[in-house]
Design a protein that fits this description.
Shape: globular
Low-confidence stretches: 123-127
Helix content: under 10%
Largest sheet: 7 strands, mixed, barrel
Number of helices: 1
Mean pLDDT: 87
Order of helices and strands: EEEEEEEH
Radius of gyration: 14 Å
Length: 127
């Protein structure tokens, strides 16, 4: 494992993660571990309950290095935010790293998704 992050409590879930029926959003943690190599790598998502018990594990391929926007956004450190496009079971979603921290977010900004060629409605068809 090279990098590990936890989904921020204020962020939505990735499109390919569903909570078990008996759980609410505040009763779990979602962690991502990146395993990187020269051609991309793998992202492993672990959905954990409040006690740290693994409820679900989902794996996806990373095909590129982290992406940045063509135009630097105000209020962010140079080189941030960074994004990873990940497809799991045919569904694409975009991970956002807003700054150098242990949290990650799911990108929802329609301009960001459009720049990366990700369809906001269903997560399919990245460029």
């Amino acid at each position: 494992m090279e990098l590990s992050f936890e989904l921020a409590s204020t962020s939505r879930l990735p499109k390919w993660i569903e909570l078990p029926e008996s759980y609410e959003r505040n009763q779990f943690k979602l962690k991502i571990d990146y395993y990187l190599n020269s051609s991309g790598g793998e992202a492993i998502f672990n959905l954990l309950d409040e006690k740290g018990k693994t409820l679900k594990v989902v794996k996806g391929s990373i095909l590129r290095k982290p992406l940045t926007l063509k135009k630097q956004l105000e209020g962010y450190s140079k080189g941030y935010p960074k994004f990873q496009i990940i497809t799991i079971n045919g569904i694409t979603d975009v991970i956002e790293h807003k700054k150098m921290e242990s949290k990650f977010y799911m990108a929802d900004d329609s301009d960001v998704l459009k720049e990366f060629g990700v369809n906001q409605d269903d997560g399919h068809n990245p460029k």
